[in-house]
Amino acid sequence: MQNPSQNENPLADLHDWEADLVRRYPEPDKPADAFRNYGDDTRPGVREFYHLNHRYQCVEFVCQKREQFLPLRQRTMSIWEAMEFLNTLVDDSDPDTDLTQIEHLMQTAEAIRADGHPRWMILTGLIHDLGKVLCLFGEPQWAVVGDTFPVGCAFSDRIVFPEYFAENPDWADARYNTPYGIYEPNTGLDNIQMSWGHDEYLYQVVKDHLPKPALAMIRYHSFYAGHRESAYDHLMNDHDQEMFHWVRLFNPYDLYTKSATRPDVEALRPFYQELIDEFLPGTLAW
Ligand SMILES: [Fe+2]
Ligand SMILES: [Fe+2]
């Protein structure tokens, strides 16, 4: 199978290629449709996680968190320090993995590397979840991880557990509960406030250092209602649609590489340290 990032149209055969990736990273007894399974047999912790997430992620909350964290005044850390710092965390929202955070990051990056993608994309795989350090700054997991979605307009019923939005203060707010809400049609995601979490936070930390497709992968990788369900096309512009090809290219590496095989973190470290030094040297403001 051809490498999608080297084709004339890299994304034309994404679906075949996604299926191929699933075949290459099999997990015993885990068919592809078992990933992101939020049906009746979902772990109770995952359901409760989304209950809290959907109840509290409203316009006012998002504004408050942006004011609190986006000055990036928590601390300064190198990428590797952030990886080690993050490694103590277990993600309650994720039904698919028991790997440590560093193992998940390296597994994602190694799968991207094995397919011959550009170095910036390998690095994106390595760092894409580092925004989860928010949890270690005392934030509850429902305000850090899980699927993201726009606030300020109606919540799509294609978001996981949409029934829990009935408890969100914006649900009954006439300013926010129409398809466009406070936004103009096709205004572009740059003008949209997303629910607060690790995607937006890491994007803000690295936004001056990586190419646009890498930034889109980081900023929208948890926006499943957008990149998988196409539930917010009415707010997106042509540039967003172009960037979402890249987000979709990235997604299977994040999702389907969560297999039981653990990467050898110490052996891989020199390669990744060099990659970090190429794009994100020294310390960053978090
Ligand atoms: Fe993530
Ligand atoms: Fe991830």
From TrEMBL:
Keyword Plastid: no
Top-level taxonomic group: Bacteria
GO cellular component: cytoplasm
GO annotation (BP), single: inositol catabolic process
Keyword match Iron: yes
Membrane-crossing residue ranges in chain numbering: none
Cofactor(s) recorded in Swiss-Prot or TrEMBL: Fe cation
Key words of the record: Cytoplasm, Iron, Metal-binding, Oxidoreductase
Gene3D superfamilies (alphabetical): Hypothetical protein af1432 (1.10.3210.10)
Alphabetized SUPFAM superfamilies for the sequence: HD-domain/PDEase-like
Chief site of localization: cytoplasm
Family matches, as Pfam families: MIOX
Gene Ontology terms for molecular function: inositol oxygenase activity; iron ion binding
Protein name per the record: Inositol oxygenase
Subcellular localization(s) per the UniProt record: Cytoplasm
